[in-house]
## 1
Amino acid sequence: MTDIILRTAVAWLGLTVLLRLSGRRTLGEMSAVDLVVLLIAGDMIQQSLLGDDASLTSGFVVIITLLTLTMAYARAKASWPGAVRRLEGVPTVLLRDGRPDERQMANSRVALDEILEAARLQGITEPEEIRFALLEVSGQISIIPRAPPGRG
């Protein structure tokens, strides 16, 4: 059983790192292709976690190990917020005062059209009306509008 726990922990850590490297946008809005890749990866990982032992007990050991790792990670996030910022990242400014930051957009794999779509959901139709567009850690785009003339 300890080999199953160890393989599960290594797989959890490896997948967490790979997903982090793939970028926040990937997690924020999954396409059908992303879902298929995750399903196939899950099946491949499942086979390596259980090895030759596909018993119900081994399956529960894997699940309990994953839940324990997830709870430990949540506790670590509460205890060491600085370390979590390094692991999960911080919001990224994609657009400031109506001007796109092309480098940050390219690094985050976010197109101007995606920012403008998020803005339109708030009734903003022109980039100049946006004070900040932020790519949140969750992968969502937040729009902070400019103050109307005469305010702020």
## 2
Amino acid sequence: MPIVTSAILNLIVVLAIGIAVGLLFNRFGISWLRRKTAGATGVGDSTYALVGIAGSFIGYHVAVILGLLPTPLTLFLAAIVGAVLTVWLWQKR
């Protein structure tokens, strides 16, 4: 697989991980009352998805910097951990 195709595929997977984690946290990670009041203040699906994307990029690139390169699966697991940690910390603000 050419490098450009691999890079685009990695980008798409990291974006999908961030969006999925953000939406899952928005749907299942907060209480019903908080979800209703957060919707009134403008913090909704798109905000959680964007925070999840940012976290997945952070996790992915920290794993690359640390040299966890034997398999792409390791990098994607680091992206999941980064997204979960970022959304969880952002939610506790």
## 3
Amino acid sequence: MEDRRTVRKRNSGERGLALLAALALGLYLVFLVLPLLLSLRSSFTNENPLKAQNDFIGLANYTEMAGDDQLRASLTFTLILAFGVTIAANALGVGFALLLNRTSLSYRVMRTVAFLPQVLSGVIVAFVWQTILTQNGLLNTALVNLRILDEPYPWLGSPHAALFSIGLVVTWVMSGFTTVVYLAALQSIPLELHDMASLDGVRGTQRFRKITWPMLAPGTTISVTISLITVLKLYDIITVLTGGGPANSTQSTALYIVKLAFTSDRVGYASAVAMLLLGISALVALTVTGALRRREVSL
């Protein structure tokens, strides 16, 4: 039978956990749910910080989006970037994870280096890559000196090259995250499976296709979903690298929302676009997650 001191300790521990849960719930409500509700309310108004009074305008902001060419272009760019970066970053993540799945000290150091891009600020990453990719940057200087190019190439100055350059930078950043996810998934594969495969003569690419890749399915679901969501709301790297240029060709939807709210002072319309982006992100995430979950079950 428990004594009173044990009962008091258990009750105290339960109260502490309840307080922590209440604090977490309060922070969630204040910093996520409340701003979401305020933005939703604002999307039905013509809110403008320069106006003394804002009026309820119903669905006018949402109907206006149907004819917004800049919004359509930003959504197209964002979706192309999101799916392109997700495929490239996850392919690199699998490759790096297979290469770094060793226990020696040198490989542990290399795993830390591989994850480094993920822990750096997006602004810092963008400034570093800007010095590399600008007209007179390190890349053009090296290519011209090596006689590979006759003159500097506008990596950030033409629409297609800027899209490729931004995709390259974001892929480099995301590959740190995907590598860690796939490393964790690789290390969770029972060694007995590989031993049995060796006894059966299954090696190389055949082992990867029949054992390793199916066992990576849960990690793939996590990595792909988070990669997509991250790139769909990307703002900082694009702002520093191109500012949405040239001619708004690399303007992400998140950047367009910021310009609407703080440059054009159209907070109500910006809120409506933000709700649209939230809906698209949720739809894409749910669709991709559902498809990958079904793949996990079928493997």
## 4
Amino acid sequence: MKYKVKAFGVTKDILGGKEAVVELEGQTVAALRNQLFQKHPALQGLRSLLIAVNNTYAEDNQVISESDEIALIPPVSGG
């Protein structure tokens, strides 16, 4: 299955753009995260990396489909 992933902040630099297509066999957020870490090891260096599915933070066991809106939410700093 192919999943379209939107990237924000530093994840855009790591993925090489604001969107990426990730192909994987699994259908969970954990499978997606693992595939992203394998393809883009620099993502593992982020202090925290959240994944949102359809505008809601997702747990690793959440099942995803190709029609879901998936976004990488990097650590945020500010003041």
